[in-house]
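User: Predict DEAD/DEAH box helicase's structure from this.
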Amino acid sequence: MSDGDVAAGMDAFSRLSQPVRDALSERGFTTPTEPQRRALPPLTRGQDALVIAPTGSGKTETAMLPVLSAISEREPTHGFQALYVTPLRALNRDMRERLEWWGETLDIEVDVRHGDTTDYQRQKQSNDPPDVLVTTPETLQAMFTGEKLRRALADVEHVVVDEVHELAAAKRGAQLAIGLEHLREYAGSFQRIGLSATVGDPGEVGKFLTAGGPCEVVEVDVGSDVDVRVVEPEVTAEDERAAGQLLTDATVASHVRKIDELVRTHESVLVFVNTRQTAEGLGSRLKELGTDIGIHHGSLSKEARIDVEDRFKSGELSALMCTSSMELGIDVGRIDHVVQYQSPREVARLLQRVGRAGHRRDETSSGTIITTRPDDTFEACVIAALAEAGDVEPADMHLGSLDTVANQICGLLMGMGELSAMEAYEIVTRAYPFRHVTEQQFREVVRELSSNRCLWLEEDADRIEKSRGTWQYFYSNLSMIPDEANYEVKDVASGRTVGTLAERFVVNFAMPGEVFIQGGEMWRINNVDEEEEEVNVAPVEDPGGEVPSWVGQEIPVPYDVAQGVGRLRGDAMARLGEGTRPEGASPNERAESAGDPRTGESVDTVARWLTSEYPTDGHTAASALSQLERHEGPVPDADTILVEFYGREVVVNACLGHKANETLGRLLSALLGQQTGASVGMEVDPYRIELELPRGASGNDVVRLLRETDPAHVEGLIELSLKNADALKFKLAQVATKFGALKDTNRPGPRRFGKNRLLEALRDTPIYDEAVREVLHEDLDVDRGSDVLRRIQSGDLELVRRNERTAIGLDGRSSGQELLSPENADQSVIDTVRERLHEDRVLLACLHCKEWDRTQQVKRVAEQPECPKCGSTQVAALNPWADEVVQAVRASEKDEEQEKMTERAYRSASLVQSHGKQAVLALAARGVGPHNAAQIINKLREDEDLFYRDILTKERQYARTKSFW
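Assistant:
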């Protein structure tokens, strides 16, 4: 550091009070870090500020030193002087430990308050408030309800919001934004300080923090201190030998070996994965290999998480396998390397995760991304390059969420008792995410709350008042996190809680006898207790156990990342074709003009180019380029959409990211379904929309719809398509709860309400409007989808077709498979599927005389079922609970739904009549209807095991695409 830098640093510290400077000297801090040097001047002047700096660069002290300095110079008060708000309780614990020394040294009391704080401690804080309170957004809401606490909050002079990027993109943050305006009603203006390691749009996040007011942004380059390598491990003879031991294939064995090598060559490693299922599957295989690793994710019990955190921090464990549960800086000691298994999907996520490594000053954070297939490698390369450039995605704020408005109106009444509707409106709309909420929308929300008895409304007097229902509503809805049941997983032998399973997983998959992995161990389900919300399990050592299909959306790949992959594909394909394309020409134009697309550079030469542009190695680059080398025809890149079709399979290859592809996929499914009167199967990734078309539709229809659908109609068509989607119905129940329309006793869940009845009852309410808004916000991108159609129709985006499958299009199917459950399942899995199907029950019903039906186990069904009453072989095999189908068949007059049921039953009977018990087995599988059963049965096979493998493949496909059928 130069003399000038030292002087500047000393000048930054010189702005602090004498007690704080003395404490700094005692602590051994002679010069500030870069964020401290730049942020202390405005913060000590009392300005609002957003501080963006890498993890471990002293952000907490950057925020708190000026706050502690101000408190140390101020006359003592009775109330809280500063609030430190964090999104996780575990961060509260860390912050208290980090701030306790400063508090003791400066005689400033620091305490923590959250949902687990004891009643005794709460009472103590009410009677004698600490100077600094570390808390969560939800607990701040609850503090407005106590008279003593409101008086204590009136003294607040500073609010620090940690991990502000995380809150800005969530409804919890929207709730906090209004909560801070509520706080202003008691405390007046106060200093606001936001902290984050990654923010893509500092100006917007600053406005979120300050309610649109001035905000000093102090940003330290997060990409310059990050060193990330993208690696696809090469399969070795050792991996081939290990595959059997690890119950997987050699490719996954190579991934396990590489992670093990990285753990053994570093002192402390975090291994991030994108899903809990991957954490469990990969973690169990690493443990089998002897890797010194623990597993950490949100579905494990709190005790289990704290245990592995402590063991890792003490050095007992060398590595932690974790999901986003470790993203937000929970203190687990020094980390010297981060492994990311598969693409992190977002730039912000990579920086947040790799930033956990290297907590010492001036130390580069190092990380390795282990990729698994070409899409994964290209995506990881693009993200790593964007990360090093510091090019982060903007926060995706919830703007104008009406259930948050409803929640906070009740929150205001809990603090103030009564106020005019216009006063409440002004407080709510001061918060930046709600600045565009109209008076009309606000009044509709108030009326809805009144009709649900959550408040008293005197409409003539423009007054709203607290009622008994307000209390009940408010304490049932402190959090904006949706209230979805988690079933406890209990080991019946020991009585201990193993972890939790989400309600949707339990409803759809958790059947007695099923085997899954949790905590790195295998468990067999004994039974599901609906009343107690428990899944009772017993430990097993069964290699047939499959990784559970955890509920939780895939991390969406943003449009800009997908476009980056498109550009990389295009540049690489141009080189493989005939050298670098002329400026201004697309790769496809270059390939067409060249005639032979394979007259360009060799794969090795293009791989060397790739390694010079992106942080990867020759083997990884060449492996990814093999996809392009196998591809024939125009390449789908940033400027080209390729529609390929073969039979009823259609793939729209489009580098548009998850949300835009989801939007276009839903649009095409809805229009094709309307055209044919049948369901359209759909599967989406950031680079493809895969459709399975019913009879009466073709790939040419898909091309026609993309070229002719009016972009202005996209939003309306999408909203119409949502009315039958489970995603909207489930969201509707969650939002209705936040409006007080469904009470806690009717907590939303697939078995707890009539979803269609609920939809009809709420259609013209703000509840319905908010549910639609949230589905559009979280899952879709209507604006981008409309823009894509405009660009296709103007010729700005090239749309080409191909009447056969391509290498790029086919790679989507393999990418959808869970790597840790290989497509060629081992014999034990096949045996498990065979045994389950034979033990399952089916409802047999005669469609000839229509007078006989019986439920029995599949293994007891005759090789050629026939009706004992009339002797007919026209017998349908149905789900054992499908009584309504039998009733529909027997009905003399049928509605539209009953007609569909009857048609499906006759198709089932036709299969059973032609193929006997084999058809019954296929129809007994989960989600395998007559159409898929026919596909399975009609395949020519030499081995019976292949029949069960095909059933397993269809079941997995159904599990992934269930919400679209």
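The mean pLDDT is 84.
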